[in-house]
Amino acid sequence: MFVKRLETLLRERNLTIAELSLIVKIPSSTMYSWQNGVQPTAEKLSKLADFFEVSTDYLLGRENEVGIIELKNGLTKIENDLITMFRKLDHDGQNKLFHIVQAYVSV
Predict the structure, then answer these.
(1) Helix or strand or coil: residue 23?
(2) Are 2 and 39 in contact (CB under 8 A)?
(3) Cα–Cα distance for residue pair 22/83, rounded to 1 Å
(4) How far apart are CA 40 and CA 58, in angstroms?
(5) Distance CA 39, CA 16 (A)
(6) Angle (CA) 98 93 6, round 5°
(7) Rounded to an integer, what distance in angstroms lies between the CA atom of residue 4 and that of residue 61?
(8) Are residues 94 and 102 in contact, defined by beta-carbon separation less than 8 angstroms?
(9) Structural Rg of the chain based on CA atoms
(10) Residue 44: which pLDDT band, with cuts at 50, 70 and 90?
(11) Which of 7, 31, 46, 101 is the most buried (most CB within 10 A)?
(12) What's the maximum distance between 2 C-alpha atoms anywhere in the chain?
């Protein structure tokens, strides 16, 4: 059930395992091992739940409702999404976006 839930969440966010690996800082080799039946540790499961804003029970198939959980970092979903997108940019792209936002906020 865990692998199916993970695949669904990846598809919904148009992410690959490699991209998720970079975002949540879990080696992609570890994630691929889950597809072969290796169970994630509680720490890694928690990282995934926080990123996808679901409970660990949802990831494990113990509950059917996705539900939104309160993020530990206190950020809203849109703030987390912006950070995620920002992290996907290369250094030059991050600098350009920073200056655009800075100019917009300064107005």
Answers:
(1) helix
(2) yes
(3) 13
(4) 14
(5) 19
(6) 100
(7) 9
(8) no
(9) 16
(10) very high
(11) 31
(12) 53
